[in-house]
């Protein structure tokens, strides 16, 4: 069986074998704390957003309740994974009297991939559901965009855990194919459907699609960090805090935006039918 | 990268380098216990208030439900952070046979900043939502007041973790700019909107705005304690217990006040439409 330990702490890194892309042993106490606080912040934001979204289901028309249920599911799943990430992070280090040591327990970065595999397809489904397209369009767009998103995550993982830079780059390229397809669909492919949306939400839906594209750009860039020599404590801090901010924007802020769209559409539709 | 370890336990504090603004090693058993009990009290109050507020959503008109949902979110988020603060406090000390020792594990005061970054903007949003202004006013006031609140917290943090008194004072001044802006908005800027509120709640809304201003005054004063030489066990006790009381007033008492306003307005509006 191949070694699937997350790359920052693969045993090879600790035994002088091929250098790890990123080395946790260079982290300072301040960097460790800052990352731990960012994870705790992420956990609190995700759980709070979940509760807010699920309470707010009562403010939208029945047609939009499923979009809001799923928006809250995305942040709930992310909240669970931030708890796991936070605990894994704490178990990987021991900080006493202001000095930091690695404990030898691995920081399991694979939780991020498990999270994305579930949440990234779901948040595209949120966006499709809130547009309230025809049933056939809803199904076909959910399957193609959700499927492409799952494929993107699955193709990224082997490169993330690979020893060599060449393998990492190969899977980056493979993973970018579905990535570019999704971005194309969001920026160009959905244009027709967006133009049929009520005028009061068209800007918001465009905004939600743009938010996905912009917040997602962070991930492939960070993935390349080890290849361009960005390692060490500062790089680990940038990656972990950056992922957390990107996740908050792509899931929590995005979910609130989907709720706003659903509330406006519900309001407009109830006025139209009155 | 700069050291962002919370100031009470930065490594320098323990190695005879520049004196810590506050030193946990001078704490007595009685002071340790008193603070631990205050944290437990804070946790219980926050969780109980959350449950009370969310159950009470059914007592207010739909227009006010979101204000109550958010009031409960603020206390829920604070409850989570009081749990983290309490656990961090307990891990920093070992009390056996009536003697107290520091364990070397840091007391992570940054949890307070993580908490405030989320809850302070939200509790201004509570107040705006319960006033039921026009949509554009609600959005613009939420963005400006919430944004100023977030900026205030972010600007306070570098001074809190800084070594030197000068840096601490500089960030105190910077953080006071959004603070004064918010206070001005609450005391003067909202006057026009408050005068348009139904007469039976005008006093309560004024009271809620005043409660925010008064309870907030505690924070910038405490922030200056280390600069005026207030350190040691008694100062730590005053700061930690004081923060806890201020948090309870600004979040739990404030949340109950928001609920009262929402219930009175719901009642008045249902009478008016009957």
Automatic annotation (TrEMBL), chains A, B:
Could you tell me the membrane topology recorded for this protein?
Multi-pass membrane protein
Write down the Gene3D superfamilies for this protein, in alphabetical order: Rhodopsin 7-helix transmembrane proteins
PROSITE patterns reported for this sequence: BACTERIAL_OPSIN_1
* The UniProt record lists the keyword Transmembrane: yes
Q: Which UniProt keywords apply?
A: Chromophore, Membrane, Photoreceptor protein, Receptor, Retinal protein, Sensory transduction, Transmembrane, Transmembrane helix
Q: Where are the transmembrane segments?
A: 34-56, 63-83, 113-131, 138-157, 169-187, 208-229, 241-262
Question: Which GO cellular component terms, listed alphabetically, does the Swiss-Prot or TrEMBL entry include?
Answer: membrane
The GO annotation for biological process reads: phototransduction
Query: Which GO molecular function terms does the record list?
Result: monoatomic ion channel activity; photoreceptor activity
Q: Which InterPro entries match?
A: Arc/bac/fun_rhodopsins, Rhodopsin_retinal_BS
The entry assigns this protein to a family as follows: Belongs to the archaeal/bacterial/fungal opsin family.
User: What is this protein identified as?
Assistant: Xanthorhodopsin
The lineage, from the top, is: Bacteria, Pseudomonadati, Pseudomonadota, Gammaproteobacteria, Chromatiales
